[in-house]
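Colleagues,

Please find the record for the two-part complex below.
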Amino acid sequence: EVQLVESGGGLVQPGRSLKLSCVASGFTFSNYGMNWIRQAPGKGLEWVAYISSGSSYIYYAETVKGRFTISRDNAKNTLYLQMTSLRSEDTALYYCARSNMGGDYWGQGVMVTVSS
Amino acid sequence: DIVMTQAPLSVSVTPGESASISCRSSKSLLHSNGITYVYWYLQKPGKSPQLLIYRMSNLASGVPDRFSGSGSETDFTLKISRVEAEDVGIYYCGQLLENPYTFGAGTKLELK
């Protein structure tokens, strides 16, 4: 069974950093590109970042470019999102999603709240 | 960025009847390889989004065939025939033709 389990969220002050993790199981993680997608409270979906299977291709939304870094460790079946210089508008539920067919599996999400 | 515009923002449907949701893109989503990179997702209350339709008209694994997707280069439709209680939620269209990937604002489906 394919599973994606996010962790690392929480309450953080503006300007601080946080690192999210997404542990994958039930499939060969190293064969798939992965995405981070977020959803602000009561709002729609916003794509954040993509990383290809071998980390050769990485893309970011303009709203996070220069502040967030997506990475992966295929040996640990884990996807990461390093978030720095956090702003109140980064407050959201962050999902990791497998890139196959446009997102055939999503995690349950991890909440990040940026507030003083 | 490609803008995805959904309509209506909400729809109320009698169980057993059909429903259609429209999505329009600000740019053609038809790639030169012949694939149209529009996708449909359903987010049930309190749950993560799930993929329904990929590449405009392909049913994702495990999705009932009551769901179907169609369209052209910029205008797309998700049709749900014989709506059931489990279909309640917010439907999103999305484009994966180019970065940044973008989504529509969502259409909330409720039962009458």
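Chain A has no helices and ten strands.

Comments are welcome before we finalize the supplementary table.
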